[in-house]
Structures are given as C-alpha cells and as structure tokens.
Specification:
With about 350 residues, this protein is mainly α. It has 14 helices and four strands. The strands form two sheets. The protein has a two-stranded parallel ribbon. The longest helix is centred in the middle third of the chain and has 57 residues.
Length: about 350
C-alpha cells in the first residue's frame, strides 16, 4: 500500500482525535493500574481454559447426536464459542497473563489453539505486530483498509478476497488471516520468529494428524467435516466478528503515520463492547479491549476492574458501546475502503463518505 498523507478534508472530530493522540504522548497510561490487577491467579486461569474446552467438546459431541442436519450450524456456532474462548485463553498466554510461568503459558497457548489448527507462536508474533501498530494505516496487521487507488492496482484474486472479507464473507475474514500468517514462517522478518513458528507448526501437526486420521478412520471424510471443519468455521465466525468490531467503525479511523501515535492508539483507537455477563465469561472479557491494549499483561478476569480505573483516570477516552447486530451491519455495509479525503471510510459503491454519527451508548 502506498504511503498516504493526512486526509485532505478532515472534520472537527478527526482533528480532535489527532489532538488527543498528541496530548497523550509521553504518558504511561498503564501506571494508574494497581499492581494487584496484574497478578495472575492460576486456578482462575485454568477454570477458563477447561470451561472453554468443555464447551467446545460438548458442541462437537452434540453434532454427533443431532437428530437432523439443520442443527449442525447452530451447534458449530456453539462449539465455535468454546473454541473462540480457547483463543482468548491463548491470548492471555501470549501476553504472559495466564500464569507466572513462561513454559506453562506456552504449553497452554499451544493446546488452546489446537481446535483452530493455529500454531501458537505464529499467532503470538503477528498479534504483537498488531499491538505495536494498532490502526496504523501502513503497519497494522488486523483488518487494515486500503484506499480506492491501491485497491484498483490489486490482482483480481486479491480484490475478490478483500471485498468478500468485508462484505458477504466478513464472518470468515480471519480465515484469510490464518492462511497469510498462521502457516507461513516466511511472513515474519525475524529469524527467531520464523524458528518459533516452525516449532509451533510441528506441535500442531503432531496432534492433529493422528486425530484427523482416527476421525477419518472411524467416521469417514464426512466425520472430519462435521466434527472438525464445521467447528473450525464456527470459531472463525466469532474470531472475525469480534476482531472486526474492535477497531472498525464509521467514526473510528485508521491513521496515517503523521497522525498516528503509539500511546494514544492504545486507548483511543479501539472500542469496548458490552455483552451479557455470561458471554463476557465465556469469551474471557475479550471485548473489554481498551484496557487490554493499555495493559496487555492484565489477566482477562481483571479487565473490567482495570477499565473502571482507566475511566476514572482518563475520563471520556474509552469508547464503550453495547453490542448490536445493527452495529455489525453498519460496519459491513459501510466500512470498505479508506477515504483519503476524510480519513474515515468509504463504502463499496462510494455512496457513504462515513460521516461521524452518534452511537447509542
């Protein structure tokens, strides 16, 4: 993607955001978080790990006893919720927040990502790249938009992939993410990261090849589709929707390098979504996202308390919204391309130049 300059016609809200980014430079936002909130509790961490594996296993087992194929999709979504919860546990492991033991974090992270066939170190390294460049238009690895001129220069298959992931196949956008960074060591510039990814790929292969071979032997190719591939798609539904909504909205821009600042990106360029409390538990507070970007080493079960601390210390800086399917629809319908005029988004047809609109809190 060619480097772009600041937007040609930014509105007052965009300029205000840039000013806030500048004002936060030099401030260590995480210093206000009490030390006790950083302390992992191993029993609580393991509770989350086993709860999510249980939900995943029950979802897969329910497919086996389902009386009709029409129940497969909702059961894959349920199993996917368990698998997404496991991803969120691996998320804590990758940041060193699951336990005080680096070896245990690495082991649990690898085990947690097996239902996704995602090598742990591949995910950990690419996720750290996202943290270091959140909503940076040139550098972020997650759901980064392109401008229309860049889009026109893409090969046809790349165009189809880009458009489908932001429209009809938005629920599987992270599948492309997995293909690009999950099983390609050469994606990473550092030799150490490439070696880590290869080791993780071997770990996944040692577990999944015998498992899939046994599954195929006892249940046939259809069983592999029903009991592994279907739930794998279900996980990506949760993965895609959640990560898309964390950093994408009509009034949440990706910033060019002249306007982007690392400190401000941690609290200003993400959105917290309020779920029912049971869903917060099963997704391990992954939607409590600004606090996580400010203090990644805070365990998931302390993120809600951390958010309250940050809201008191930095009032008005955390974007917080109730999850609605209408909000998801607006993103999928409008947020397709980076608009070099406004700095926000332009839709596929160029009909919506993404005005900043108020959102119900």
């Amino acid at each position: 993607m060619a480097l772009l300059g600041p937007p040609n016609h930014p509105d007052a809200a965009y300029l205000e955001l840039v000013a806030k980014m500048e004002a936060l430079e030099g401030i260590k936002l995480s210093e206000v978080v009490p030390k006790e909130l950083y302390e992992p509790r191993l029993a609580r961490s393991l509770l989350g790990f086993f709860t999510s594996y249980l939900l995943y296993g029950l979802g897969v087992a329910s497919v086996a006893v389902a009386p009709h194929w029409s129940l497969y999709i909702p059961l894959w979504i349920a199993a996917g919720l368990g698998g997404w919860g496991l991803h969120c546990i691996a998320h804590d492991c990758g940041h060193g927040a699951f336990s005080k033991s680096k070896r245990l974090n690495t082991l649990v992270g690898h085990l947690a990502l097996l239902p996704m066939a995602y090598p742990f170190h591949a995910w950990r390294n690419v996720h750290n790249m996202h943290h270091s460049a959140t909503n940076n238009l040139e550098m972020d690895t997650d759901w980064r938009p392109v401008d229309m001129e860049t889009f026109k220069r893409l090969p046809l298959l790349s165009k189809l992939n880009y458009l489908s992931n932001r429209t009809v196949l938005f629920w599987f956008g992270t599948g492309a993410y997995w293909l690009v960074s999950g099983i390609r060591p050469d994606f990473f510039p550092q030799s150490r990261a490439r070696d880590e990814v290869r080791r993780s790929m071997v770990f996944v292969a040692l577990f999944l090849i015998p498992y899939l071979a046994a599954l195929g032997y006892f249940t046939g190719f259809g069983g592999i589709l029903k009991y592994f591939v279907g739930p794998w798609f279900g996980i990506h539904v949760w993965f895609s929707i959640t990560t898309l909504m964390h950093h994408t909205a009509e009034d949440l821009p990706f910033l060019v390098k002249e306007n982007w600042r690392r400190t401000g990106s941690r609290i200003l360029l993400t959105i917290d979504y309020r779920y029912p409390q049971w869903l917060h538990f099963l997704t391990h507070n992954i939607s409590v996202h600004a606090a996580h970007h400010v203090a990644p080493k805070v365990p998931c079960y302390n993120l809600q308390r951390t958010t309250e601390v940050l809201k008191q210390a930095y009032p008005g800086l955390i974007r917080e919204r109730k999850f609605t399917f209408g909000g998801l629809f607006r993103i999928v319908a409008h947020c397709h391309f980076y608009d070099a005029e406004t700095g926000y988004y332009k839709s596929l047809l160029g009909l919506f130049n993404s005005p900043v609109v108020p959102h119900a809190e």
